[in-house]
Amino acid sequence: MLIKFFIKPRKGVLDPQGRAVAESLKSLGFDNVKDVKVGKYIEVYVDSTDKEKAIEEAKEMAKKAIVNDLIEDYEIQVVE
């Protein structure tokens, strides 16, 4: 089973990478770019057939090792 983590800075948290990308895009002529957030995408493969259990494990992984919940928001997708 595949667990996908989509992580991005929380609203209001300074994102220097996002700002740099936004400025680069504007300098390339993409004047309608308002804001950019740069995040992380992580895949974790687990040996499980129980989707609900995998979701609970994913939440624990996020809390304990993958996400800094003080400054990051995240979404989880579990793919069978």
Outline the structure in words.
The chain has 80 residues and is of the alpha+beta class. It is 35% helix and 28% strand.
Q: Bin the strand percentage.
A: 25-35%
**Largest sheet, order of strands side by side?**
2-1-3
Q: Residue-averaged pLDDT, rounded? A: 96
The CATH architecture classification is 2-Layer Sandwich
Number of strands: 3
Helix share of residues?
A: 25-40%
What structural class results from the helix and strand content?
A: alpha+beta
Q: Which residues form runs of ≥5 with pLDDT under 50?
A: none
Name the overall outline. Answer: elongated
CATH superfamily: Phosphoribosylformylglycinamidine synthase subunit PurS
Total count of domains? 1
Q: Please state the CA-atom Rg, rounded to the nearest Å.
A: 16 Å
**How many distinct helices?**
2
Topology-level CATH name: Mth169, Chain: A
Summarize it.
This protein is of the alpha+beta class. It has 2 helices and 3 strands, in the order βαβαβ.
Descriptive key words:
80 residues, alpha+beta, Mth169, Chain: A, 3-stranded antiparallel β-sheet, 2 helices
Question: What's the layout of helices and strands?
Answer:
Elements lengths: L1 E8 L6 H12 L12 E6 L5 H16 L5 E8 L1
Antiparallel strand pairs: 1-2, 1-3
